[in-house]
UniProtKB/TrEMBL annotation:
Family according to the record: Belongs to the sel-1 family.
PANTHER family, per the entry: ERAD-ASSOCIATED E3 UBIQUITIN-PROTEIN LIGASE COMPONENT HRD3, SEL-1-LIKE PROTEIN
Recorded superkingdom: Eukaryota
Lineage: Eukaryota, Sar, Stramenopiles, Ochrophyta, Dictyochophyceae
Name of the protein in its database record: Uncharacterized protein
Amino acid sequence: IGGVFSWRRLPADVQEEWDDAVAMMTECAAQGHMKAQSLLASIYRGGFGVTEDQYKARELHTKAAVQGDALSQSALACHFRDGTAGSLQSWSEAAVWFTKAADQGDALSQCELARIYMTGQGRPIDYSHAVELMELSAAQGYGQSYQGLMALAMLYKEGLHGTKPRWAEALRLMELAVKGGRLGPTGTEELLKLVGDIRECSPLLRQRVVVRSSNAEFDGACGVAIDFGFEREEGGEWLIDSGRYTVKLDGSEGRLVKVRVGNAAKEEGGQEGE
């Protein structure tokens, strides 16, 4: 149902059935039923068969949020973030409720809480936690289109905010953002350029490689280059000569070794790795 206008165009018998359902939900909500409160709040918020009432919606969301309903906790957090429906704008209160919903796996709240930790509004800046939350949100496919995915991808690509470059993860998230089809022509073109830069600068990434080393234990060993990044920075810039592939060696142990760019070569006849 798209709102009051579309509601009025529904057949009378459907409207009557919905009225009965709303009446039952209202009764259940008055008795403290959490899900009824949450659902009824959404009905008032959208004006689905009732007069839209943001204040009533906030009141019901608050009751359900206190009982632990993640959707209502997220909705209440948004009210505090934006200062709507009679709520005083408060980043700290928004963070409290986004945290409660995020802890229950709500993807929107994980993304919004990540932004709070990245900006320091309502919580001390904590980039590591922000990355963790954004990754959890991105793993569920949420990104408010592609923004969450892109923010995380750029963190991994550039090694920002206390993180080290992890190009494999940056590449994966960029490809996921492109696959989502929400970037538009310009956004897609810009992102594909970044993807191309990563592949050009780390051509062995995801490939099967042979390791060349002065250490006899690793010389001639084969495996998959599962990541690429830089080990050292100077003046805020990552040093090119510190670029290393992370190679997962063949064998049951799957040992990981860091390999200089010049000490890795594509395995002859090798296929792309996982």
